Amino acid sequence: MVEQSCDRIFEQLTSQLEEIVPAFGVRAFFVDGTSVRLAHSQPLCQSYPPGSNQHGEAHWPLLRMLVAHDLETGLAMRPQWGPMHGLQAVSEQQLLETVLDRLPSGSVLVGDANFGVFSVAYAAAQHHHPALLRLTLARALRLAGGPLQEGIDRPILRRPSRDDRKGHPGWPGEAWVRGRLLVRQVQPDNGAAPFLLYLFTTLPTGQDEIFKLYGQRWNIETDLRSLKSTLELDQLTCTTPEMVAKELDLAMAAYNLVRAITCLAAQRTGLPPRSYSFTRVRNVIQAFAPLVAAAQVPQEAQKYLDQMMYYVQQAKLPKRGRKRPSYPMKVWSRGASFPLRSQ
């Protein structure tokens, strides 16, 4: 029931907040994976075994979680997760293949180099989702069949390797994906040295729009920060796998409701939804939600709701004309030494 409620909230909000990427005419979803630390209990250690190293087994059970967030609105699909360690450990690519049927139809799938493998591209094509995936240098060289240079825009027929087929024995013999290999030199915003960026995409649009779309991938990192820091999903406190599932799903439902209120405020002001602070909007909702719920008549509830929306519209992110300087690196000084006590 919790899963169905979470899915229904997501479906209703995405249908009402029809924010598309203008250059593509469809939605774009960024995908990424993260780890979540769980409470130490016997049921959780059995379902999500702790990791280990040369010093022995770790204390905290860990799970690997995959999220998919809408580029424009920030709305998030119900996450998918599995063990991070042990015999049943799952990869981010495996988790992604199991959730593609829950993405809105025709949505663009955007992923970093960890998702730039053939299995992800093929699964996206099978579910009729255009893909935009970053490639590692080794994969880009293999696809190009020669040296990589600035400005490459080459049609590619991507086929699985022997290892790909070994991991997916059910693929048909004619499994392939038709797309493009794009190479461009990009300049990082932090002033670091320019580098060549390699992308594989099944989108037919121009290079500028594609690289601009991938340039917004950092939004998924800030969304994960909101989930793990603001909503405190970095460390769960429940002690059974069933409660872990409920806590993760309901946290995502709460996240989506905050994003929905943000989108309503953005529609009134004409600003992009991502120009608002998630934490500040969440705090405003927490302050006004009890007043709205306790209202005796609809007019009173509407009054509090209007006040809430007013303060939400003030929760804009600051416009910084320049980057804030980083603090100089410092180290803790050694403690004071004391003289030896005489006998």
CATH class of the largest domain: Alpha Beta
Going by CATH, the architecture of the largest domain would be Alpha-Beta Complex
Could you say which overall geometry the principal axes of the C-alpha atoms support? globular
Strand count: 10
Strand arrangement within the widest β-sheet reads: 5-4-1-6-7-10-9-8
The low-confidence runs, each spanning 5 or more residues with pLDDT under 50, are none
Query: If you consult CATH, what is the topology of the largest domain?
Result: Transposase Inhibitor Protein From Tn5, Chain A, domain 1
Helix content: 25-40%
Number of helices: 11
Mean pLDDT: 91
Describe the 3D structure:
Strand 6, helix 4 and strand 7 form a beta-alpha-beta unit. Strands 5-4-1-6-7-10-9-8 form an eight-stranded mixed beta sheet, with helices on both faces. The protein has a two-stranded antiparallel ribbon with strand order 2-3. Helix content is 38%, strand content 17%. It has two domains: 229 residues, Transposase Inhibitor Protein From Tn5, Chain A, domain 1, CATH 3.90.350; 73 residues, no CATH class. It is globular and about 65 Å long. With 343 residues, the protein is of the alpha+beta class.
